[in-house]
Amino acid sequence: xxxxxxxxxxxxxxxxxxxxxxxxxxxxxxxxxxxxxxxxxxxxxxxxxxxxxxxxxxx
Length: 59
Hints:
Blueprint: E1 6-8, E2 15-19, E3 24-28, H1 30-36, H2 38-41, H3 50-57
C-alpha cells in the first residue's frame, strides 16, 4: 500500500508532482523550475526540517 495519493507530470519528464495528502512534493528540471518560479510564490512559506517531517510521518 502506498502513502502517495496522486502523481502528475512524470510522463513529460520536466515536472513531477507527488501528492501525499499532507505533503505535496514538486520535482522540476531547471527549465521548468525557472518557468514556474515556485520559489517566488512560496517565499513567505515556513521552511520544514525533513528529518522532523519524517519522524511525524513515519512514527
